[in-house]
Amino acid sequence: MFSFNKYLQPAWKFNVVPTGEQFSTCYYHPQLLPLQEDVEIEPDESFTTEAGRNADIGFQAWNRGVMTWADKQTIQTISQVKPTLRDEYAFTFKYGGKHWAVYTLFRRLLSLHNPVKELMAFQKASGTKRINRSANPLQRPQYFSFQSPLVEAQPFISVIIPTLNRYEYLKDVMLDLEKQDYKNFEVIVVDQSDPFDEAFYKPFKLKMQLVHQKEKLLWTARNNAVKMSKADYFLFFDDDSRVEPDWITQHVKALDYFKADISAGVSLAVIGAKVPENYNFFRWADQFDSGNALVKRDVFEQIGLFDLQFNKQSMGDGEFGIRAYLNGLRSISNPYAKRIHLKVAAGGLREIGHWDGFRPKKLFAPKPLPSVIYLFKKHYPHALYREAILMGIMLSNVSFKNKRSSSMLLLSVFLTILKSPLLLMQVLKSKSRADAMLKTGDKIEYLG
């Protein structure tokens, strides 16, 4: 594994090795851990060492949808031999391009690494050509002909929807659920709207449990819905989304086909960052989206419910996702259980003052939200935590709708330098509150 990935993707959960005995991974070794699916990846001679070539094959395979499963001892043995500094720079050129390689060099020099060694390694690796990491993904034609026994068994599912002042959009959500070709499900709506409109729900032909929750607490709402359900599977959904009639079926089918614990559906945002190419094929999920995910009941029995420390803050689903990964659970990124996420301008988290964890609305408010630092310090080593916060801050100075533009992101980096005294004050304020959260400890209940 390349340590320089901390500069390209510091928050990528696969940078962290789980503590359990069995887990999904991006490692590769021709003898100890060969590719477990039918795909050919030629060794790249841009890497001068066997460790570098093996790490590259593993990283390529992961990005192309190869799902490798390993045990702790194997990973410990493989990771004893590490890529050289020159191969680390070749990795940044290959997967990040020249701009990210320059950024990495800059970060390394600021961290007081030997400048002669860094510059020599950078120069030697500079001829490495950049590739599209999602090109030539692994195809699984057998998935389409798979007759899922689980779909045929029609296990009972609870679709869980917390909502807050979005009746206009919730109507379409309910209509989409009425059209589902999978029938054995209920809808649990935890309505935190003010004013609460109970009559809104009467026209819909759905098996429904309606809860009026007066407190505006998103993660409490989801946890309470799970605890009140008798279902074997929980499907988490947002109140500003649209889905196709086979949405539930595709979640169940993928869970069955891959023998997974979580089907993480992809979310296609109508605004914001570009839709990743890897949303078009199956792969290990590197995120958990609580607006579109099917979860087995025993997951909550094994690792607990959502951490209530995230109430009135954000990234509670990110924390749950990394916790599932670190405990060895299998989570599949499912391209066929997609939703259109409208990201509407009113209601939801916006009602309590924020939505993007790195963009508080008030000028002198903590930045990022304390829950973001709490998540990274709780689960990531210091080097990754530091880089994740730095990158998040650098890319947070433009609105979400402008994140499709490279020039706007460059502007964001420039604004980071310009605003650095203010940003330092905001980060220190956030860190202080996050440290208090860590001292208090998580607030995680276990189902059953």
Molecular structure report:
By secondary structure, the protein is α/β, with parallel strands linked by helices. Helix content is 40%, strand content 13%. It is built from 17 helices and 11 strands. Strands 3, 4, 5, 6, 7, 8, 9, 10 and 11 form a 9-stranded mixed beta sheet that branches. A two-stranded antiparallel ribbon has the order 1-2. Helix 4 (85-96) crosses helix 6. The two termini are 38 Å apart.
SSE blueprint:
Layout: H1 5-8, E1 22-25, H2 50-63, E2 68-71, H3 72-78, H4 85-96, H5 98-110, H6 115-125, H7 142-145, H8 149-153, E3 157-163, H9 167-178, E4 185-191, E5 208-212, H10 218-228, E6 233-237, E7 241-242, H11 247-257, E8 262-269, E9 283-284, E10 292-296, H12 297-303, H13 316-326, E11 331-341, H14 370-379, H15 382-394, H16 406-418, H17 420-440
Parallel strand pairs: 3-4, 3-6, 4-5, 8-11
Antiparallel strand pairs: 1-2, 6-10, 7-11, 8-10, 9-11
